[in-house]
Amino acid sequence: MKKTLLLLLLTLSFTFFSQAQILKKPIPDKLVVLTFDDAPASQYSVVAPLLKKYGFGATFFVCEFQPNYADSALYMNWRQIQELNQMGFEIANHTHTHANVSKLSQAEFNAELSYIEAKCDSLGISSPTNFAYPGYGLNAKALEFLEQKDYVFARAGGSRAYDPLSDHPYLIPSWATDEKNKVEIMKAFEQAKNGKIVILTIHGVPDIEHPWVNTPPELFEEYLELLKKGGFTVISMKELEKYVASKAAKKIIKADFNKRSKN
Ligand SMILES: [Zn+2]
């Protein structure tokens, strides 16, 4: 009996200690992170003005999506990405070529990351500190490579809420929007409570080249309207640093590859 009590006390104090280290401040209810992948043209023409209208923060995970990235009808150019940065949005790394990083050597991965870092540097965009796995391809090696490059957070899929006390900072889950999953996304927003954060992965609004991840502009604005009316706080990945001490979390939380990480 005494032993059980001692064990319980130890567990409780460890939990309390870990929480204090991982969280810089308590996670408020209704905290949502918006992330936008692949740099489709509509993120500049449709998404950014709408986000500004609603006063929301967001992260743009950019890459040069092969082979059509230079087609300005389909993708943003770097001047437009620079403008997003000047508007106050976060520009983050989605690799140079939208590569499946689970298949890359460390040298190849570093080259993919460095290309985007150098582009940002040349345009006065602060160096990306956050990463999103193209196609949700990831493995333990990829996490090591990110660690060596000192990245803060890495976003995956998984269609579940982010719990900073149990999800590793390089395995941050998200839901991906498309034109058919409105009910699922609306339900997802309800999970932003009790210490959990809801993160969305959004592609083109609309998405011309990848229709399976298309989010129609009217549906997107419906989400923004709901977030505004519901009193949600909508931030970028970078702003997560106000709440989560990534370095401490990486030490305390073991990367669990059994949890779902794909959308
Ligand atoms: Zn992508």
TrEMBL record:
Keywords carried by this UniProt record: Signal
One record GO biological process: carbohydrate metabolic process
Secretion signal, residue range per the UniProt entry: 1-20
Keyword Disulfide bond belongs to the record: no
Gene Ontology CC: extracellular region
Localization annotation: Secreted
A single MF term (Gene Ontology): hydrolase activity, acting on carbon-nitrogen (but not peptide) bonds
NodB homology domain span: 30-235
Superkingdom of origin: Bacteria
Keyword Signal: yes
InterPro entries per record: Glyco_hydro/deAcase_b/a-brl, NODB_dom, Polysacch_Deacetylase
PANTHER family per the UniProt record, alphabetical: POLY-BETA-1,6-N-ACETYL-D-GLUCOSAMINE N-DEACETYLASE, PTHR34216
The protein's name: Peptidoglycan/xylan/chitin deacetylase, PgdA/CDA1 family
Naturally occurring in which organism (per UniProt): Algoriphagus locisalis
